[in-house]
């Protein structure tokens, strides 16, 4: 019989080691995810196991577990005998993600309208004001981050854990779509008005209208993405 089984006092140590290992894996997954979403490692780029392990001062065991977690979340793909790579999302998959996201946005609006607080409404209006200023300054990067924050706030305010988890996974995957910035100034003139109307519907507690506006807003984003991608492809063909 093993010594561990003969000595129950070892059980707390084993549990602690398990928790520490799980925590390290999660922290590593979050750190690598930030590297991916920030653009430090581009879609299609290889995750150099040795370099990442040295960077964070860890062994390869928990790092490989972290890569597996990221694979499950759709950010990484692993190839036998080749290693881990950042996933590439093509235009077709990006369009499909937008379709699902539109439904999730609509669900969030319907859920939130019946319980949104005055403080939450004010927070969303502040996002709208900040986006308006970013649009006026043609600050596309700032507008992009504010726009993501606005919609993430709406989903987060529902406090529906399942909805939040699925939504955030899809948004992260959409960030892998290799493209030039789709939120160029020509793509954002109407965003501020659309966001304002969404907040107004939530403030009135009109779940049906909030759902409809959020759905149309997401579908509009999908259409803009497809249009700009088509224009880019045509431009590349003309230049060839």
Lay out the secondary structure.
Elements lengths: L2 H4 L3 H28 L8 E2 L1 H8 L3 H13 L3 E4 L3 E4 L4 H23 L4 H19 L3 H18 L3 H14 L16 H13 L3 H33 L1
CATH superfamily of the largest domain: GntR ligand-binding domain-like
Radius of gyration from the alpha-carbon trace, in angstroms = 22 Å
Fill in the CATH topology of the largest domain.
Answer: Four Helix Bundle (Hemerythrin (Met), subunit A)
Report the sheet-strand fraction: under 5%
Brief summary:
Helices cover 72% and strands 4% of the residues.
Structure description:
This protein has 240 residues and is mostly helical. It has two domains: 3-86, Arc Repressor Mutant, subunit A (Orthogonal Bundle), CATH 1.10.10.10; 91-239, Up-down Bundle (Four Helix Bundle (Hemerythrin (Met), subunit A)). Helices cover 72% and strands 4% of the residues. The protein contains ten helices and three strands. The chain has helices at residues 3-6, 10-37, 49-56, 60-72, 91-113, 118-136, 140-157, 161-174, 191-203, 207-239; strands at 46-47, 76-79, 83-86. The protein has a three-stranded antiparallel sheet. Helix 6 (118-136) packs antiparallel against helix 7 and helix 9 packs antiparallel against helix 10. The chain starts with a helix and ends with a helix. The model is unreliable at 1-9 and 12-19 (pLDDT under 50).
């Amino acid at each position: 019989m093993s010594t561990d089984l003969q000595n129950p006092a070892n059980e707390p140590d084993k549990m602690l080691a398990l928790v520490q290992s799980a925590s390290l894996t999660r922290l590593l997954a979050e750190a690598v995810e930030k590297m991916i979403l920030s653009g430090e490692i581009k879609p299609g780029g290889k995750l150099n196991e040795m370099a990442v392990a040295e960077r964070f001062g860890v062994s390869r065991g928990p790092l490989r577990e972290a890569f597996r977690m990221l694979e499950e979340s759709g950010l990484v793909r692993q190839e036998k005998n080749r290693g881990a790579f950042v996933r590439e999302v093509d235009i077709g998959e990006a369009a499909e993600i937008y379709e699902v996201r539109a439904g999730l946005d609509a669900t969030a609006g319907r859920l939130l309208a019946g319980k949104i607080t005055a403080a939450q409404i004010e927070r969303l209006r502040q996002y709208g004001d900040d986006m308006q200023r970013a649009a006026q300054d043609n600050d596309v990067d700032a507008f992009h981050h504010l726009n993501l924050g606005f919609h993430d706030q709406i989903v987060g305010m529902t406090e529906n854990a399942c909805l939040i988890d699925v939504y955030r996974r899809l948004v992260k995957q959409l960030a892998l779509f290799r493209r030039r910035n789709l939120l160029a100034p020509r793509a954002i003139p109407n965003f501020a008005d659309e966001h304002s109307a969404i907040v107004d519907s939530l403030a009135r507690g009109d779940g049906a209208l909030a759902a409809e506006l959020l759905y149309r807003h997401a579908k509009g984003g999908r259409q803009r993405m497809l249009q700009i991608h088509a224009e880019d492809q045509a431009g590349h063909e003309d230049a060839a």
